[in-house]
C-alpha cells in the first residue's frame, strides 16, 4: 500500500452505545438511554490522495520450478484507492426512567450542529405538562461581526471551537424567554496567546 494505508474499519462509527440499560441490585430495570447518531464518511477522491495497492496474481518460471536457481517472473495487479475520514455526531437521546410503581417517565434531548460541526443548540424537555422545552444555544467566534479585539483574532486565526456565549431559553409557548446567559470575553497577551479575560453571567428574575 502506498502512500496511505487503506481504511479497513471505519472506527469513527465503532463502539458507540445505541442503548444503555441500568439495573439495580435485584435485577430490576431502572433506566434506559437510547442514543441516535448521524454518521458521515468522506472520501478524498482528488489526485493528492490517490493511493495504490498491489497484489500478486501469478508467477511464471522459465524452467524447472522446483529448482531454486530457475529464473521466474512475478506478475502484479494494481488498484487505486482513496483515503477516507468520518465522524459520528449524537443527534438525539431518549431517557426512560422506570419507577417502582410501574410508571415510566421519558425525557428527550436533541442536538443540532452547524457546518463547522460545532453544537449550536441542545433542546430538552422542561415542563411536559405545559409543553415547554429548554433550549441551550451556543455561539462561537465566527457568530460575531467584530472589527477588532481578541475574539476577532480567534476567528481570523481559524480558532473556532471556543464557546463565547451560552444562552438558556424556555420555548414551546407564545412567550419564548431567555432565563440565563453566560458570556466569555477574551484578551490577547503580550506573547500573542489568547486567554479568557472575564466571564459575565445573567439570570432572569422572572423566567
Keywords:
207 residues, nine-stranded antiparallel β-sheet, two-stranded antiparallel sheet, mainly beta, flat
**Percentage of residues assigned to helices:** under 10%
- Hey, roughly how much beta strand do the residues contain? over 45%
In angstroms, what separates the terminal alpha carbons? 61 Å
According to DSSP, the number of beta strands is 11
List the helices and strands and how they pair.
Blueprint: E1 19-23, E2 29-43, E3 50-61, E4 72-82, E5 84-98, E6 104-113, E7 119-127, E8 132-139, H1 150-156, E9 165-171, E10 177-188, E11 194-203
Antiparallel strand pairs: 1-2, 2-5, 3-4, 5-6, 6-7, 7-8, 8-9, 9-10, 10-11
Description:
This protein is mostly beta strands. The chain is built from one helix and eleven strands. It is 3% helix and 55% strand. It has a nine-stranded antiparallel beta sheet with strand order 1-2-5-6-7-8-9-10-11. A two-stranded antiparallel sheet has the order 3-4. Strand 5 (84-98) and strand 6 (104-113) form a beta hairpin.
What's a quick, concise take on this entry?
By secondary structure, the chain is mainly β.
Amino acid at each position: 500500500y502506498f502512500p496511505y494505508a487503506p481504511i479497513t474499519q471505519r472506527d469513527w462509527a465503532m463502539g458507540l452505545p445505541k442503548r444503555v440499560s441500568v439495573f439495580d441490585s435485584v435485577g430490576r430495570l431502572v433506566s434506559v438511554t437510547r442514543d441516535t447518531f448521524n454518521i458521515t464518511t468522506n472520501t478524498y477522491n482528488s489526485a493528492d490522495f490517490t493511493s495504490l495497492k498491489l497484489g500478486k496474481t501469478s508467477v511464471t518460471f522459465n524452467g524447472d520450478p522446483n529448482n531454486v536457481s530457475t529464473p521466474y517472473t512475478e506478475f502484479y495487479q494494481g488498484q487505486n484507492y482513496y483515503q477516507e475520514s468520518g465522524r459520528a455526531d449524537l443527534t438525539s437521546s431518549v431517557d426512560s426512567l422506570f419507577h417502582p410503581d410501574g410508571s415510566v417517565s421519558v425525557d428527550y434531548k436533541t442536538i443540532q450542529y452547524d457546518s463547522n460541526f460545532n453544537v449550536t443548540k441542545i433542546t430538552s424537555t422542561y415542563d411536559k405538562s405545559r409543553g415547554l422545552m429548554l433550549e441551550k444555544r451556543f455561539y462561537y467566534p465566527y457568530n460575531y461581526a467584530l472589527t477588532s479585539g481578541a475574539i476577532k483574532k480567534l476567528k481570523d486565526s481559524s480558532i473556532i471551537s471556543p464557546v463565547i456565549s451560552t444562552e438558556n431559553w424556555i420555548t414551546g409557548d407564545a412567550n419564548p424567554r431567555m432565563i440565563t446567559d453566560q458570556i466569555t470575553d477574551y484578551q490577547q497577551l503580550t506573547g500573542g496567546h489568547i486567554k479568557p479575560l472575564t466571564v459575565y453571567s445573567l439570570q432572569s428574575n422572572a423566567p
